[in-house]
Amino acid sequence: MTTPTEAATVTKQLPEEFADLARFSAWILPTEPERYAKRLNSSMEEMQDLYDVGMERLDAALDYCDKYDINDLPEEVRNLFNLLQSVVMVSFPIECWKQPRVPDSGAAYLGMVHEPLV
Question: 90-103: per-residue pLDDT in tens?
Answer without folding.
Answer: 998 888 776 676 55
